[in-house]
Amino acid sequence: MTRIPVPSGSLYGLANLPYGVFSPDGGEPRVGVRVADSVVDLAAVLGDDVFSWPSLNAFMEQGHERWVEVREHIIDAVSDDLPDEAVHAVDAVTLHLPFEVADYVDFYASEHHASNLGRLFRPDSEPLMPNWKHLPVGYHGRAGTVVPSGTGIVRPSGQRKAPDEAAPSFGPCRRLDIEAEVGFVVGTGSPLGAPVAVDEFAERVFGVVLVNDWSARDVQAWEYVPLGPFLGKSFATSVSPWVVPLLALEAARVPTPLQDPEPLPYLREKNPWGLDLDLVVEWNGQVVSRPPYREMYWSPAQMLAHMTVNGASSRTGDLFASGTVSGPEKDQRGAFIELTWGGKEPLEVGGEPRTFLEDGDTVTISATAPGPGGARLGLGAVTGRVLPAAPLG
Amino acid sequence: MTRIPVPSGSLYGLANLPYGVFSPDGGEPRVGVRVADSVVDLAAVLGDDVFSWPSLNAFMEQGHERWVEVREHIIDAVSDDLPDEAVHAVDAVTLHLPFEVADYVDFYASEHHASNLGRLFRPDSEPLMPNWKHLPVGYHGRAGTVVPSGTGIVRPSGQRKAPDEAAPSFGPCRRLDIEAEVGFVVGTGSPLGAPVAVDEFAERVFGVVLVNDWSARDVQAWEYVPLGPFLGKSFATSVSPWVVPLLALEAARVPTPLQDPEPLPYLREKNPWGLDLDLVVEWNGQVVSRPPYREMYWSPAQMLAHMTVNGASSRTGDLFASGTVSGPEKDQRGAFIELTWGGKEPLEVGGEPRTFLEDGDTVTISATAPGPGGARLGLGAVTGRVLPAAPLG
């Protein structure tokens, strides 16, 4: 039997307990929970086959009451001795995509990010569109290209046309960027015709992941009118391996910034679901930004209510992400296009001036949140390395 | 034993043989093929369990060679006597969504439609965006709200702001519209990092459905900048119950209209995949439009090549639709916003002037295609009735 040591100050103590899908050396993927530097095999410990699946979906589908119950069982179990074969060192296992993605929606909920991108993409217009403060602007992304942290990111090729070029050309992306985002995983879906009320958020949403919405800015700038981003985004969206349950984030809840004008009634929260998450963006191991999630204008509860207010159904495994998290300060911006102001103000990375991503670069986004009694919780990390473009066919 | 009578002139003769998912009275959903006015239970006739699934996905995943082989087996089998219990009257079965939708992408491939919508949505700008003739513009839609023909369409509610209103209001859509489209179902997917060449289309795509991309124009007009349509579309997208195999459409192949400027090399087709489909739009039983698919600027092979050229993977069950099919003539427009020029030129329907959809209205889109030897093939029909908005919560 094994007792998992939990050092004081661990970001993965008993107040956190994020879920993931792992395979032990030579074993099949299954659901685990992270405790300090260990992964606990939940099927082995709790004896429930729902954790033998290679995704969290079957468990998430069981609903909120069950999530509460299982969390209590886990806290009991991991506070005691566990069978040796149920405990693995986190460094010794392979981590997978933790859930099967149903639909993927990406919002645009940071006022700072939306204003910065407005200035960069549409320099002759108002930075924020007239609708922006009335609704959380969002769009659907490609669910099939959501990939687990660690997946290599092949530089995409595509059509791009610089403003000074007469015609578009085809080739590898020249402005490869990141977007540091927070993603929300729907645990229990809602049927067609039944909008999710803004106060049902915690009942429906299972947990939180970190997201890197890799972006080919040159492709995006050329393609995105009038139907929105498509190939500039759909080549890869990375998510962190650990889903932090919403149940662990009570101490992280904060009000959103003042919303003025007051949103329409279906977007008014009784109990705010802003979140006090501190993100950190590392470029080749060097911290280049610390985006504060608490600055996000729209809350995830408002995003879910908006996404379904037209009667659209939601499903277990739906992922909706916040859009780039950017704060008011320059070193709080969650995308390189903002950090380098469209490439005009290079950052010093590894002693060299840098703008967009080069082949071989690695980007890691991590985050922490306040937990109960002054503890900090970790949100795992989402990382990816840029690989050279495939040879043109 | 039963021999299925196939009247000469049937749109569902042996040259067609579309696949669907049906349940006989009291039975489980399974794969069938339509022959004249009958549905043949494929698991019962061919003895292969892949047809016992409640979707075509497992069969589609087997790949092109197998599709060819099964089609030959079906032609042999249905030309002969069949066991009584394997044959059902099409009117006596329930038809379901024929495939599980992985990702859903909607293109915008009609020059006439894109120009008309440009004039209506952005009257002060050029109707076509600068990118339009260089790439098939498209975006991701909501896979989870693709519904089978016959599903009632509850009028969506949402935010909308008329140009003369100071602020948006919330309420039922006032400009509910259709889009008559043709959809293409990916049979065999492609891995991340491996673009599908434009000439691989017929190898990868299993078949064709009709699509009604219901559209809340007032919601769409307010929300769609800068990230594209979202809730104005995501409440429902209806598809026809029969997937016509690409193998049945050889005689329908035509070149696309002249593409000028010449597209970039990855979009150049050696063997054109324009399709000579004649669509018919009926509003409460009255034909209001006959959109010609042969007028579409971009071919579906170009759409698939574009959709994956950035390295995005594709999956069995991916659905990509053409966007509204509109021809150059007024009575060839595939959306009411075009047919009534933004509501300013009502149509006479059932003796009354009509612009957008009212509760209780029914829209049916059907199509035919040339088959071998002068035969016509039917594409089934996609139909839906508008139901009143849900009471506001």
Automatic annotation (TrEMBL), chains A, B:
Fumarylacetoacetase-like C-terminal domain: which residues?
Answer: 105-384
Q: Which cofactor does it need?
A: Ca(2+); Mg(2+)
Residues annotated as binding substrate are Y108, R122, Q220, Y224, T324
* InterPro entries with a match to the protein in the record: Fumarylacetoacetase, Fumarylacetoacetase-like_C, Fumarylacetoacetase_C_sf, Fumarylacetoacetase_N, Fumarylacetoacetase_N_sf
Q: Where does Ca(2+) bind?
A: D106, E179, E181, D213
Q: Which residues does the Swiss-Prot or TrEMBL record annotate as the active site?
A: H113 (proton acceptor)
**Which Pfam family, any one, appears in the UniProt record?**
FAA_hydrolase_N
Keywords, sorted A to Z = Calcium, Hydrolase, Magnesium, Metal-binding, Phenylalanine catabolism, Tyrosine catabolism
The pathway noted for it is: Amino-acid degradation; L-phenylalanine degradation; acetoacetate and fumarate from L-phenylalanine: step 6/6
What is this enzyme's EC? 3.7.1.2
The name this protein goes by in its record: fumarylacetoacetase
From which organism does this entry originate? Actinomadura verrucosospora
